[in-house]
Amino acid sequence: MRLIILLVTTIGFGSCTSNIDVSATKTKILPFLTGSWAQDNYSATFQDYKVVNKFSGPVSATQSLAVAYLYDTIASTSVDGGTVSINGSSLTKINNGAKGVEYLLNSTAGNTVPLIFNGSSHIFSVAGSGDFASMTDTVSSPKAEVNITSPTVSSSLPLSSGFTITWDVPSGTTSDIFIQIRDTSLANPYQVVTSDNGSYTITSGNLSAFHAGHVAVSVTRINSKDAVASGGRKYAIGVYSTEIINCALY
Question: Over the chain, what is the mean pLDDT?
């Protein structure tokens, strides 16, 4: 039996990992941002995060969302693990038929998602049931939401020479940064994990499979960790902030 507790938003990261540049020490963040928990045999994942998607106009869409799945690998379905909470706030339990039980808090539905970006501890808890034993763990949030300073919305970015992404860096940060460049015509985005130092250059080689047209540039600041619960259940927890800037490649 395998349990997955997945707290996610629909931000378009996708589940492809074939075009990703990531060191072995950074793989802990991949279940959250690339959907790789299924093949990496996680017994549980906990996530709590916020996404800001910026378009021209200026127009932006903001969403904070927590979703939890308790997953039984033998039955290939999510199960009821009792109450699932973050910082004492219980997620709403929903029966999704063949998909099993889903736990959800969604800011766009008027829910208050317990998410603060100030370095404070976020407590993830499962009350437990006959299908999954109780567990509790914590991870500190990033010290600030991510804020991309370059490129800006509707920027024209050259395929031939690449471009540099810059973002604000909070004092004392120890977070990881996950960058994704997504062309809607590509199945696989370019993805990379780097340190939270405020700058990363995308080369023309990184863009070799891309085409002129719309492109979404996203930067995620994330704190996460892997752990093993009683019974050898592997799980990961994470808190993160994502900003997406919609631009054009030429």
Answer: 82
Lowest mean pLDDT among 76-85, 195-204, 211-220: 76-85
Q: How far is CA 249 from the centre of its chain?
A: 25
Rounded to an integer, what distance in angstroms lies between the CA atom of residue 164 and that of residue 154? Answer: 15
Instruction: Answer whether 195's CB lies under 8 Å from 174's CB.
Output: no
Q: For the chain, how many residues are written?
A: 250
Lowest mean pLDDT among 12-16, 31-35, 186-190, 210-214: 12-16
Domains of the chain (ranges; CATH) run 20-249 (2.60.40.10)
pTM for the predicted model, two decimal places: 0.86
Q: How far apart are CA 111 and CA 117, in angstroms?
A: 18
Hey, what are 24's tokens? 């072995």
Given a contact cutoff of 8 angstroms between Cβ atoms, the answer to whether 29 and 225 are in contact is: no
> For residue 48, which of 132, 121, 101 has the smallest C-alpha distance?
121
pLDDT at 115 over 90: yes
CA separation, residue 149 to residues 28, 152, 166, 218 (Å): 27, 7, 5, 12
CB half-sphere exposure, 87, CA atoms < 13 A:
16
Which residues contact residue 242 at a Cβ distance below 8 angstroms, ignoring those fewer than 6 apart?
Answer: 11, 49, 50, 51, 52, 146, 218, 219, 220
Where helices occur in 9-55 by DSSP H, the ranges are: 30-34
- DSSP annotation of 142 reads P
More confident residue, 143 or 31: 143
What integer pLDDT is reported at residue 227 of this predicted model? Answer: 81
